[in-house]
Amino acid sequence: MKTKVYLLIVVTLSMFSTSMLGQVVKHPRLLSFEKKQSLELISANKSKVSISDAHYKDGLKSLKWEFKPNAELSILKDLNFEPKDSTGTDTYLSSFVVWVYNESPIDDQIVFKFFKDDKLCSSFPMKLNFRGWRSAYLSYERDMEGIPEVGMNCIKVNAPDSSGTLYFDMLLTATLVDHRHHTPDIQLPFVNASSSNHWLALYSTSLIQPDLPLQNSVSIAQKEEIFEIENRLRQLLYTSSKLTNKQLHKLRESYAWYEITRKNDRVKGRPLFYVRASEAFERLFPGTWNANLYVDQGIELREYFNLMSDIAIAYLNAENPIDKKELRLMFINMYDHAADQGVAYGSAMGIFTHFGYSFRKFFTSYFLMKDVLAEEGRLEDASKALLWYSMANEVFTVPLDPGMDIDTFNTLAVGRISSILAMPEGPEKVRYLKSYSRWINNGCLPAKGLDDSFKSDGSVYHHKIITQPMVWEG
Question: What's the pTM value of the predicted model, to 2 decimals?
Answer without folding.
Answer: 0.92
